[in-house]
Amino acid sequence: MDMASDGVEVIYITGNHDEMLRRFSESTIGNFSIVDKYVTELNGKTAWFFHGDIFDVSIQNAKWLAKLGGYGYDFLILINQMVNWGLDKMGKEKYSISKRIKNGVKGAVKYINDFEDVATDLAIEQGYDYVICGHIHQPKMLIKENKYGKTMYLNSGDWVENFTALEYQFKRWKIYNYNHDKLSPFFVDEDLKGMNMQDLIAAITIVDKKKKKKKDKKAKKSE
Questions:
Q1: For residue 98, is it within any domain?
Q2: CA distance 153 to 174
Q3: How far apart are CA 129 and CA 52, in angstroms?
Q4: Does some domain include residue 219?
């Protein structure tokens, strides 16, 4: 809401934990919009955004089961926090129980692979260059191809265990990982070398405008 009030367009894409908000899908208040899916153009390429729970049969056909699973996941996270507190006190590395389960159970691995295949096959069928989603909590960025074409699959992961998000800037995608990237710049010097002059000028202009806005706000507050 702070970003929206600062003039930034915010598009909130609902997921399986936003059942109440889905009543307000396609609603817009100022710079804030609520949608179930979103299609847009990014530098001449079409991007398809959605949460991904539409592919989950348990959520679509048995919402009580999905809610039970959600409570179970929350409880597992709570236990994990206590375990990690103990590990931290002993000077040992933190451990993710749910990630271990998901990566070790064959059924979970197959579900993730099937999810990616269904999402990318649909994106290729619709002619989308990018398919961007979440839901399965597995951060990933890869090119998927079949006999009809290809698309880039992007999954944001989550901000609970993986601490990951997706960023698009300078016509490129990146998986931001808080544990590794912290406050590092979006691109390292090697990437900047490959950018053309117009893109660099545009990037600098955007940064300068943001700084100018902040200075103007501080000046107004001091008045």
A1: no
A2: 12
A3: 17
A4: yes
Could you give the percent of the chain with pLDDT greater than 70?
64
Q: Identify whether the C-beta of residue 186 lies closer than 8 Å to the C-beta of residue 171.
A: no
**Percent helix, strand and coil across the chain, each rounded to 5?**
50, 25, 30
- Split at pLDDT 50, 70, 90, the class of 26 is very high
pLDDT band at 80 (very low <50, low <70, confident <90, very high): confident
Number of domains in the chain: 1
Residue 11 falls within a domain, yes or no?
Answer: no
Cβ atoms 140, 146 nearer than 8 A: no
Domain with 214 in it = 187-223
Closest CA to 135 of 107, 115, 161, 117: 115
Residue 139 domain-assigned (yes or no)? no
Sheet containing 32-35: order of strands? 10-13, 32-35, 27-29
Residue 223, H or E segment = none
DSSP for 185-198, please give it: -SS-HHHHHTS-HH
Count CB neighbours of 195 within 10 A: 16
